[in-house]
């Protein structure tokens, strides 16, 4: 899946799911890896919160940024915890089963590429990434890729997308 900067990512399972322990513990791990190379994996689970059953759908688990956003220009790997977790972690289990045994959800990874939302780069708001946006950035640098610094990496994102229309 490729998308602009998402405000949340919702996983939908085949059947109802539940956390082993109710609470704010994350039953899904979130890792961030470099776009392209897929290397330098970092566990960023602590940057996110979980919302179980958004929209009252028992099959859904929503991952919402807490302190940080889904960082643009990174690939995110979401992994439901299906084996005995560490301290403070909780398994993601199937719910409403016809057996008394607890069964973890199927173990699989979900990959999400987070791209820059071009609308972020269109600082002038004329629906194009253009030279005006370079000028505006130079006057008021913005941090597009969410690394905490407004620097030449962010300026380069405008340069890389010059001439692109904004939806
Ligand atoms: Ca513009
Ligand atoms: Ca930046």
Q: Please trace the helix and strand order, writing H or E for each element.
A: EEEEEEEEEEHHH
Radius of gyration: 19 Å
How many domains? The number is: 2
Largest sheet: 5 strands, mixed
The amount of helix comes to 10-25%
Instruction: Label the overall shape.
Output: elongated
| Bound ligand species | calcium ion
Number of strands: 10
The helix tally amounts to 3
* Strand order in the largest sheet: 1-10-8-4-5
Average the pLDDT over all residues and give the rounded result: 87
SS strand fraction: 25-35%
Distance between the termini: 18 Å
Structural class: alpha+beta
- Uncertain spans: none
Explain what the structure shows.
The chain is an alpha+beta fold and 167 residues long. The chain folds into 2 domains: 2-114; 118-160, no CATH class. 13% of the residues lie in helices and 26% in strands. It contains 3 helices and 10 strands; from the N terminus they run E-E-E-E-E-E-E-E-E-E-H-H-H. It has helices at 118-121, 131-139, 152-160, and strands spanning 2-3, 9-12, 17-19, 28-34, 42-43, 48-52, 60-65, 74-80, 92-94, 110-114. The strands form 3 sheets. A 5-stranded mixed beta sheet has the order 1-10-8-4-5, with no helix packed on it. The chain has a 3-stranded antiparallel beta sheet with strand order 2-7-6, with no helix packed on it. It has a two-stranded antiparallel sheet with strand order 3-9. The chain starts with a strand and ends in a 7-residue tail after the last helix. The mean pLDDT is 87. Bound molecules: calcium ion (2 copies). One calcium ion binds at residues 122, 124, 126, 128-130, 132-133.
């Amino acid at each position: 899946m490729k998308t602009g900067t998402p405000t949340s990512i919702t996983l939908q399972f085949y059947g109802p799911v539940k956390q082993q322990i109710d609470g704010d513990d994350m039953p899904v791990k979130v890792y961030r890896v470099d776009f392209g190379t897929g290397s330098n994996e970092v566990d960023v689970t602590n940057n996110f919160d979980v919302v179980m059953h958004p929209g009252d759908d028992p099959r859904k688990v929503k991952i919402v940024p807490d302190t940080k956003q889904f960082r643009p220009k990174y690939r995110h790997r979401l992994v439901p915890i299906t084996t005995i977790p560490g301290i403070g972690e909780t398994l993601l289990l199937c719910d409403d089963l016809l057996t008394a045994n607890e069964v973890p959800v199927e173990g699989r990874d979900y990959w999400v590429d987070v791209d820059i939302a071009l609308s972020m780069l269109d600082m002038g708001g004329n629906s194009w990434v253009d030279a005006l946006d370079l000028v505006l950035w130079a006057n008021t640098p913005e941090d597009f890729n969410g690394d905490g610094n407004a620097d030449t990496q962010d300026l380069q994102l405008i340069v890389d997308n010059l001439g692109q229309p904004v939806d």
